[in-house]
Structures are given as C-alpha cells and as structure tokens.
Amino acid sequence: MKKILIAVPCMDMVSARFAQSLATLQKIEGTQAIISFLAGSLVYDSRNKLAAMAVNMEADYIMWFDSDMVFAPDTLVKMMKTLDEHPEIDILSGLYFRRATPFTPVLFKKLERAGSGVEYEDYKEIPDGLFEVAGCGFGCVLMKTDCLYGMVDEEGIGNWFEPFNKAGEDCAFCIRAREAGYKVYCDPDIALGHMGYAPVTRSFYEAMKENDNGTIG
User: What are phi and psi of 150, to 5 degrees?
Assistant: First the structure.
C-alpha cells in the first residue's frame, strides 16, 4: 500500500475554507494518507521537519498544502493520476495565483543562482497542458519522497527548504531539486484559489489582464 503524507505548514489558525477543502479531499483507493499540521513562524523550518517526517515514516509521496489555499475534492486524485501517467515528473504543482497585484501565477519560467542572489522570470502567459517549470510555490505540490534522498549533504542531513541568496524556502527547494536532476512541472488543469480578500483564480487573473489599468473594477 502506498503511503502519502499530507503536509500543512501553518500558523496557529487556518481558514475555515481551507479546513473545508481539506475535510472533503477525496481518498485514493490502495493508499494510506496521513495528515500532519506543523505550526511555526519559520516556514522553512516547518517544511524541513515535515519532509523529515515523510522520510521517517517511509512515505512514498508528500502532498503539500498551504493553509490559505482553496481546492476541489479531487485535487489529490488528479495529481496522483498525473504522476502515475508521467513517471518523468518528480514534483508537480497545481495552478494558483499571487494574492496581490499583478496576480501572476506562482510559477517561474527561470529560477537559478546568480552570484549572491537569484535570477528569476515569472510567467505572463500560461501554457496549455502539462508543462515543465523552473520553480513553483508550495501552496499545492505533490512530490515523490525519493527526491529528498538525493538532496542531502555528505552527512545525510537534509536542509531541503533552507533559504539562500535571498530566495524563499520554496524557490530554494526548487533550485536544489533541479540541480540534483529532478523535474518540476505544473498541471494547469489543477486549479486552486488563493485566499486573500477573495480567492484569486485563473478567471480573476485573466480579467485583471484585460483591464487596461491592471485592476479589477
């Protein structure tokens, strides 16, 4: 039986809409899903501890959700199906958008070390179908736990999400993962809302682009 850790780094409180999304998440036949919340002010530390938990429990996959996401009941089912059909994919993100203008997708076309900083490029247009990305946020990511084994230091310690070069913990992880040879993809058919004043969805983003002054109204 395959084992999945559903990992949720969070503060002390989570939104009711996220809790409802998580409560209605469909189970996958033949798998054991274990949900773990880890509260803390340092997100990278919470993610590292959750990743270590997945390794220690010998989980096959980690399903990452941020506590400000809104998602459909079949989200995990769809993402598992995509990984099963595309064995070349190690890390898979759903499609969601930043909570503030310009509401761009939380995806990177370019993301790499550059001296003491990081060079990156956002997506302005969203490709059709499954596509490879340089990096993604970790608001909704399904990944193979095997990736973690290839990203440890010489002493076997994994600081997978520790920030560097002013990169956030999710970007830092993606850079390390790609340097280790793992592939990151996005499935735009996995659509999520990002909790702000209202859920930011693809239709919201497209409407914003069509408005000349970049605002909704």
Answer: -90, 10
